[in-house]
Design goal:
The chain is α/β, with parallel strands linked by helices. The chain has two domains: 2-89; 97-250, P-loop containing nucleotide triphosphate hydrolases (Rossmann fold), CATH 3.40.50. It contains ten helices and five strands; from the N terminus they run H-H-H-H-H-E-H-E-H-H-E-H-H-E-E. The chain has helices spanning 2-42, 46-56, 66-93, 115-122, 125-128, 143-156, 166-179, 182-190, 209-214, 222-227; strands spanning 135-137, 161-165, 194-198, 233-239, 249-250. The chain has a five-stranded mixed beta sheet with strand order 2-3-4-1-5. Helix 3 crosses helix 6 (143-156) and helix 7 packs across helix 8.
């Protein structure tokens, strides 16, 4: 018993010495890594610096090879930049339904949405080939949600999108003609990869109030196309008359 009582303090002292040694190593590693962290921040690699700091605190990371750990750091930086880019693109797009995405589309039988068509549109090949997508249907069939989801997908793929209600867009074009910023506005529209126009209805009748108020601004939409060899892809959203099937959303 006497021997055991003497060994206990020695074991406690050994544990204390090992804890002190590990603490010294940790402090030394922190001091050695501090200049590297500062350089990463100077290079605007903040996400990589944060990921590297987290790796230092995870014991299981030491079992990974250098290439694997470096790949995780690069992935963390890339993911952070992609998230920021997407957030900026969606903010600039000014979508009416910013939460809309293709994964959240509902496919009830009454809407008769073709999943194969949606999957094809999700590739954004229509944007690359500068084609248009017309979405039509009665009120409440999800036209705006589907259009915003397509624009959201385009932003994910690295394209620039812009959402405008048709009446507001034509009003902006009319004002731009009056204040001398017409060419600048056309240039902004032409730089967009996807132009989402909501409620693009029929041409106003000659002599009607809308015709007198707006003239015929729909012809202005041709200018971004004429001024560029690769015009923006358009996604008009139109509301059908009452004789149409009120349950369907047409693509």
């Amino acid at each position: 018993m006497a021997g055991l009582e003497k060994r206990a303090p020695e074991g406690a002292q050994a544990l204390a010495r090992r804890a002190v040694t590990e603490n010294l190593f940790t402090q030394e590693e922190t001091m050695l890594n501090a200049p590297t962290i500062e350089q990463l921040h100077a290079l605007k690699l903040a996400a990589m610096a944060t990921a590297w700091t987290e790796q230092q605190q995870q014991a299981d990371m030491t079992a990974l090879a250098f290439d694997e750990r470096f790949a995780l750091l690069v992935e963390a930086e890339w993911r952070s930049r992609e998230n920021k880019r997407l957030a900026r693109a969606l903010q600039d797009a000014k979508l009416k339904l910013s939460h809309a995405c293709l994964e959240a589309i509902d496919y009830p039988a009454r809407r008769e949405l073709d999943k194969a068509v949606i999957r094809q549109l999700a590739t954004c090949r229509w944007v690359e080939e500068h084609q248009g997508v017309l979405i039509s249907g009665m009120t409440g069939t999800g036209k705006s949600f589907l259009a915003c989801a397509l624009a959201h997908q385009a932003c994910r793929k690295g394209y620039r999108a812009l959402y405008r209600r048709a009446s507001r867009l034509f009003h902006e074009l009319t004002l731009a003609r009056a204040d001398g910023t017409y060419i600048r506005l056309l240039g902004k529209l032409a730089r967009m990869d996807v132009l989402l126009i909501r409620r693009l209805g029929p041409r106003p009748a000659p002599g009607s109030g809308a015709s007198r108020r707006l003239g015929d601004p729909r012809g202005s939409l041709r200018h971004p196309v004429d001024d560029h060899h690769q015009p923006a892809a358009t996604c008009p959203v139109a509301r059908l008359h009452r004789r149409a099937d009120p349950r369907r959303c047409h693509l």
